[in-house]
Amino acid sequence: MPVALLALAISAFGIGTTEFIINGLLPDLAADLGVGIPAAGLLVSGYAAGVVIGAPLLTMAGARLPRKAMLLALMTLFLAGNLLSALAPSYGVLMAGRIVAAFSHGAFFGVGAVVAADLVRPAKRASALSVMFSGLSLANVLGVPAGTAIGQALGWRAAFWAVVAVAVVGLAGVAALVPSRPRPREQSLVRELSVFRQGGVWLALAMTVFGFAPVFTVITFIAPMMTEMGDFSPGAVPVVMGLLGIGLVAGNLLGGRMADRAVLPAVYISVGALTALSAIVAVTAGSKQAFIVAIVLFGVAAFATIPPLQTWVLDSASQGPALASAANIGAFNLANALGSLLAGLTIQAGHGYAAPAWIGMALGLVGLAVTGLVSLRVRRQAVQTDADRKVAAEDASGDVLEISQ
Asked: Which residues form the domain of 52?
């Protein structure tokens, strides 16, 4: 694999750490800034909103830039957002810093996915994407726990300074290792936007939303599920989360390998496994050993969905991949919001802490149904293409016959 993928993975590690690091620091941060926990929690929602809004806006704004220049600009923006967060004198300034950093998130992953895919031969595109996105999965395993520990020991600002350091390394890596290539001649904002006229692109985005939504129905409420239903001690939660993180890393790499062989079957397998494991997590919530095995396998299935889903969007929007890729990052974040929202409403309705996993199964079934629609569309297009070729061949043979006569 090209060494430039390492620079993209390091940048992804920093971005992923920033997204989730706030969760473990909310009590200290709220006390220091003089706000309540619910208000501090809006820093998570504000970041997610920034990703969804910023991804298409910044990708469109940079449509005429060479892709390396776009990545450098986005990492600079990300660095500035985290500097603002680390220095924030008030809650409002911290929220602004979070939103600034979030704006770079979706566009970086969208453009970075296109760059990663272009660094390798077509047969290895999904594996290249999995290497880049391994930075995101490692952020959950290493970055967030380490950042939380730093924040708890040295203050929440220290955690953001640590992310600033990672951002500097990522920026330097992109500058030094990602090859400079001229902007593709065919690349333009009009061309990028034109892909959204295709029904296949919207189906691909829907496949991401519903295929990935089960992940956060379970992960968002895994701690109370463990302590309230499985009789785990609070100290066991970080250990199990670490095991889940290992599953995420393994699944990301596995998903890349599967998608290199056949993208759409990889989506079927990964989303199908995620759907089944959501139900298994619900069933095993009261048994410690079985739950641990189920949640690790759930992690494998969860991130095995990312490379094939991202690769399918790139394939579906080959005429304007950067904007569609960024939109798919927004779709992943919409999946996060949808999954956690429905799971929370289910718990509030009094259905218990295992109920979110059943919601995950239901969302996964919708994801499989959308995947079925995608497959049907592909088969119809293949039949139409074959028919057009036969007509063209018959016309050509008729012309030859007329000439010979």
From this structure: 1-187
